[in-house]
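Chapter summary example.
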Amino acid sequence: MDLALTDEQKVRKQEFYDTCKELEKKKPPSFLGFETIYEDEKCWEYNLHCAREFAKKGWLALGWPAEYGGKGDMMDRVLFAEARGYHNVPGVDIFGVQMLAPTLLQAASEEIKREFLPPIARGEVMWCELWSEPNAGSDLASLSTTAIRKGDEYVINGQKTWNTGAHKGDWGFGVFKTDPAARKHHNMTFILLDMKTPGITIRPIPYLDGHAPYCEVYFDDVHVPAKNIVGQEHEGWAVVNLLAGFERSGINEIMTMIRGLEDLVQFCNQTKRHGQPLAKNPLVRNRLAELACQLEAARALAYRVADLQNRNE
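The structure predicted for these 313 residues follows.
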């Protein structure tokens, strides 16, 4: 792939950075990163404010087809994520915007796309992920929470755990066992559900310091419309794998580390040991160079992911 940006991309990149730089100035002191948006109400409101600002510019739908309100391509998404990571600003729902939306575009029915994509693009609906269970973490296909079809509904019973921000999510997406008699990997369905549906109980899991970004979610005869599935019934594993592909890249975290490296270089230039700046020490210089090379390699990999996605690979 060609890593050079076009003139148009350079202009958009600068706009992304300028906007995020301004939003960074409004960051509450308690905001320390991703998890804090689920721990502190001021951070949550800051997250929603950033989301509204990005939505006004159409940036929550970067890389979407035009017929669903999209603009730009996957490289624009990467450049936007770079700017957010460098300035450490939230506002892009990792579950709704980054994971679910591209999955819906590839796997959902037209009815589902028309219903769920616009609120995501407007920053109006926040999502959570309902995957892991007490006995089904790394082996998600061993899940036991059931969604049994009854007419035009599924009735869900069971428990999910380690659900990031479930107490803040308006909607959730998850996989549930819809055919208990079928073989593994062909017995589950990917379902969208309103987190305020009767029968859903959310219990935050507190850290030692009292903060609780993760939750347990219990389902007791939760009725969900059967139309709210993505992909084919009992073939939710294929959708899980599709969605997992959109979790890859992590360019915003890479840029957060690049910003940290810049701060570290400044520290080494300003801090002296034995009368000389640390930056004059060859061991320190070597280590800084090694970190810089690793981060640039990671950024190049993220660019490659975007290039592959632009070519539907």
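To summarize the output: The CA atoms of residues 12 and 76 lie 8 Å apart.
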